[in-house]
Amino acid sequence: MLAVASWFWIDSYSIETRAPGSLSGPVAFPRGVAAMLAVCSVLFVWRTVVARIRTGHAREIPVERPASVLLSMVLVVLYPLLLEWLGYYVATGVWLPVLLWVSGYRRPVGIALASLAFLAFTKVVFQQALGTPLP
Hints:
Shape: globular
Radius of gyration: 18 Å
Low-confidence stretches: none
Number of helices: 5
Strand content: under 5%
Order of helices and strands: HHHHH
C-alpha cells in the first residue's frame, strides 16, 4: 500500500495546476488518496509491530478469498492507467462496477446505482461546485 501511495503522490506531479506545489485543484484527489493509503499502511505496520512485541508473534489475518484480494490489488494499480487512457468518467464507469463485483457485491442493480451515484457525486462536487476538471 505504501508503494501505491508513493506512486500516486509522485505521479500527481504530472497533473497540470495553476499553482505548482499546491495541494488544491486537480492534484488534491490523487494526493489525498496517496495520503490515506500511506497512513493506513503505517497503521497496519504499527499494529503488527505492537502485536509482535506484546505476544511474541504477529497476529495472523486469514484471507478467505485470496484471488479476490489479489485481483482487487491489480484493479487498484490499473485504475490510474485507465484514467490516463480513457478519461475519468469512462475509466471509473468501467472500473468501479468490476471492483464492486470482485469485492463480493453481486447485485447488478445495486452496482449500477452505486456507480452512477458515485459518478454523479464527483461531477457535481468536483466539476461544478469546486470547478476542478477531472482527467
